[in-house]
Design goal:
heterodimer; A: alpha+beta; Gyrase A, domain 2; Elongation Factor Tu (Ef-tu), domain 3; 6-stranded mixed beta sheet; 6-stranded antiparallel beta barrel; 19 strands; B: alpha+beta; OB fold (Dihydrolipoamide Acetyltransferase, E2P); 3-stranded antiparallel beta sheet; about 35% strand; globular
C-alpha cells in the first residue's frame, strides 16, 4: 500500500494552483495548510474558513430496508425517531462494541439516506453496510457517491452568512444537524448544518462538476481556504474525536466518552457489549488535559504518568491557539480521569506537568 | 524566499552571521521557517553551554511537527534570545533578525568558511 498512487479530490488542482502545501492523508493528496495553521484556525474562530473534505466517504443508502439497516449499524437513533431532513452523529460498532468508525447519517427522504464516513475507513464502512444488506436487509441499495459529489465544509461565525450570499442558504430554515436538498451554482447539492470545528457552519455536498467554482466563490465571499492542519487543531479544541487516533475497534463508546451518542435501550450491532460496558463501568476512559505552560507539545503515543507511574497514553495532542497552551486527549484509569487531577506527559524523556480538565477545551458562545 | 548575503548557511537550514566582535549569531533560515509552519515552541541551549558544528543544539516545534536544530558552528553559547522563547512566532515573522536563536563565541572563526555562501544556499533550496 505504501507505493499506491495517491488519490485526489476534485479540488486538487485548485489547492495546488492556490499554493497550498500538500501531504498524503488517508490515501489522498490533501492540503495540510494554506496561509498557516494558526492563521487558518483564527479565521475559522473569528470569521469563516473552508475545508475540502471530499476525501470522506459519501454513501447513499436507499430502499425499503435502508432505515432498518442504518438503525442496526449506527448507535444513534436513526430509525423511526429521526425525521426527514435531520442528521445524527453516532458510531458504527462491531459485535464486541469496538468502534469501526464514527459517522453522520443524513435523512433525505422516507427511504433515502446519506452516511458520511472517515476517508481512512470508507472502504471498511461500505463493506460493513454491504454485509448487513446481504445478511439482514436485502431491500437496500448502496451506492458509493464519493466521486460524483464533492464535500466542502464552510465553518465559522460568518459561515451561514457567506452561504446565504453564495448559495442562497437560509440558516433559519436549516437548523444545526439538519440537511436540505437544494441547488448550488446551478447543480444539485446537499447542504447540512454540521461540521468538525466547534463553530457554527455547514457542509456543502455539491455535484463534483461545480466544486471548483463553489470553492472560488466561497473564497471571493471572504472564507479563508484551510487545510487539514487547522481542521485537526480546531476539532481537538472542540474535543471532537478522531477515529484512528482517539478511538478504534479496540475501544468501545463508553471508554471513548461517547455515551451521549448511543441509545442504549435500542438494539444495534454491538449493543449488548456497549450496554455491559455502560452498566459495569470501564477500567479506562478518554480524558482531556492541558499543560501548565507552553512548552514541548504532547503528541499521540506519548505516555501519561501519575507520580512517575505509567498510567496511559496520549491519543491526540497539539498547541491550542485558543488556550495558548498545549492540550491533548488520552486514555487513563477511570479513577484518575477527574478534572483537576495532576498528571505528567513524557515528551521525549522530559516530564511535562499537565492537569486533567473538563471537555470540551473550547465551546463557542451562542 | 529571502537569503541575505551577509551570512553563511548550513545544509540543515541554519544561518551563521559573523559579528564585528568576533562572535557568531545563529538562527534558522526563511526557508526553514516556511517549511516548519507556525512555530509554537523552541528549545535552546543555555548561556555557557557548548555547541558543536552539525550537532543537535535544540529543537523547534511547529503546530504539527518537531524538528531538531543543529549548530552551524562550534563554540560557547554567550547569549540566548529569550524573546523567541516567549514569542516563538518571531521565528516565522523575522527569522533573520528578531528571530535569532543564540550567540556563540566560536572556537575557530574559520569554521564558517565550511558553510554555504548565500548563492550556494539559494541554489540548495531552489
Amino acid at each position: 500500500m505504501a507505493d499506491a498512487p495517491l488519490r485526489t479530490t476534485v479540488l486538487h488542482d485548485d489547492h495546488v494552483s492556490l499554493g497550498a502545501r500538500m501531504v498524503p492523508f488517508a490515501g489522498y493528496d490533501m492540503p495540510v495548510q494554506y496561509a498557516g495553521v494558526l492563521a487558518e484556525a483564527r479565521a475559522v474562530r473569528t470569521a469563516a474558513g473552508i475545508f475540502d473534505v471530499s476525501h470522506m466517504g459519501r454513501f447513499a443508502v436507499d430502499g425499503p430496508d435502508a432505515r432498518a439497516l442504518l438503525d442496526w449499524v449506527h448507535t444513534a437513533d436513526v430509525g423511526e425517531a429521526m425525521p426527514m431532513g435531520r442528521a445524527r452523529y453516532g458510531l458504527l460498532c462491531n459485535e464486541s462494541g469496538g468502534i469501526i468508525d464514527d459517522a453522520i447519517v443524513y435523512r433525505l427522504g422516507e427511504e433515502r439516506f446519506i452516511i458520511v464516513a472517515n476517508a481512512a475507513n470508507a472502504p471498511k464502512v461500505f463493506a460493513w453496510l454491504e454485509r448487513w444488506r446481504d445478511e439482514r436487509f436485502p431491500g437496500t441499495t448502496l451506492t458509493d457517491r464519493t466521486a460524483e459529489i464533492a464535500m466542502i465544509a464552510l465553518q465559522g461565525p460568518d459561515a451561514t452568512y457567506i452561504a446565504g450570499q453564495v448559495a442562497g442558504f437560509d440558516p433559519d430554515a436549516v437548523r444545526p444537524f439538519n440537511v436540505v436538498e437544494t441547488e448550488v451554482m446551478g447543480a444539485s447539492a446537499l447542504i447540512a448544518r454540521t461540521g468538525y470545528t466547534g463553530e457554527d457552519g455547514i457542509e456543502i455536498m455539491p455535484a463534483s462538476e461545480v466544486a471548483s467554482a463553489l470553492w472560488r466563490a466561497l473564497m471571493d465571499a471572504g472564507a479563508a481556504p484551510c487545510g487539514l492542519g487547522a481542521r485537526d487543531t480546531l476539532r481537538l479544541e472542540a474535543a471532537l474525536l478522531l477515529h484512528g487516533s482517539d478511538m478504534d475497534e479496540t475501544v468501545n463508546p463508553i471508554e471513548a466518552g461517547l455515551e451521549r451518542f448511543v441509545r442504549l435501550e435500542r438494539d444495534f450491532c454491538g449493543a449488548d457489549a456497549v450496554r455491559a460496558a455502560a452498566e459495569n463501568g470501564t477500567a479506562r476512559v478518554l480524558a482531556g488535559f492541558r499543560t501548565a505552560e507552553r512548552g514541548p507539545a504532547p503528541r499521540a503515543h506519548h505516555r501519561i504518568l501519575i507520580d512517575g507511574a505509567d498510567v496511559g497514553e496520549v491519543t491526540s495532542g497539539s498547541y491550542s491557539p485558543y488556550l495558548d497552551t498545549n492540550i491533548g486527549l488520552g486514555y487513563l484509569p477511570r479513577e484518575a480521569s477527574e478534572p483537576g487531577t495532576p498528571i505528567a506527559v513524557d515528551v521525549r524523556g522530559r516530564q511535562i506537568p499537565a492537569q486533567i480538565v473538563a471537555l470540551p477545551f473550547y465551546k463557542r458562545s451562542r | 524566499m529571502s537569503v541575505p548575503e551577509d551570512r553563511r548557511y548550513s545544509k540543515e537550514h541554519e544561518w551563521a552571521l559573523a559579528e564585528r566582535d568576533g562572535l557568531v549569531l545563529v538562527g534558522i533560515t526563511d526557508f526553514a521557517q516556511h517549511e516548519l509552519g507556525d512555530v509554537v515552541y523552541v528549545e535552546l541551549p543555555k548561556p555557557g553551554d557548548r555547541v558543536t558544528q552539525n550537532a543537535q543544539m535544540g529543537e523547534v516545534e511547529s503546530v504539527k511537527a518537531v524538528s531538531e536544530l543543529f549548530s552551524p558552528v562550534s563554540g560557547e553559547v554567550t547569549a540566548v534570545n529569550d524573546d523567541v522563547k516567549n514569542a516563538p512566532e518571531l521565528l516565522n515573522e523575522s527569522p533573520h533578525e528578531k528571530g535569532w536563536l543564540i550567540r556563540v563565541k566560536p572556537d575557530d572563526p574559520a569554521e564558517l568558511d565550511s558553510l554555504l555562501d548565500a548563492p550556494a544556499y539559494a541554489a540548495l533550496i531552489e
